[in-house]
Amino acid sequence: MEIPDLTSAFAEAAADKPLMRATSHRVIAMSLTRAAIVAEARAWIGTPYRHQASLKGVGCDCLGLVRGVWRALNGAEPEAVPAYAPDWAEATAQEALAEAAARHLVRLDDANAFAPGDVILFRWRQNLPAKHAAIVTSSGTMVHAHDGACVAQVAIAPWWRRRLAYAFAFPGVSE
Asked: ∠82-107-158 over CA atoms, to 5°?
């Protein structure tokens, strides 16, 4: 029995996957580009809204969208996400979403200095913690999941800009 040479098959399969490197608690793509993040976020458009879900084409919420894009580009998620109720931010009054993002993404000093591929977080009201996430797709658009709708690309209109609280970049991003 002849053993097939799988070298070319492995090389072909890996050709469209970024190189990975491990850090102390996460895996980061070494060739992650803004274009790849935007393309992956746009691939989720049309996914139905499902609270706590994170499966492209099946269902996700705003955090699930970011988690799914992370998995597609970087591999396993860096930490398990605990169960959360739709009113988690109002109930806890803690910046849990921003704190979790800061553990795994790179916080931008100026939230308004976001670029395509960045993750932006919003507050529904000034006195409440940030509880909505989106991925920037251009200087004026974002992809997000919103209760009662499918994942969509929308304008970052003045209404959204007034509620912008934080911006983060994926680690290891190149232009």
From this structure: 95
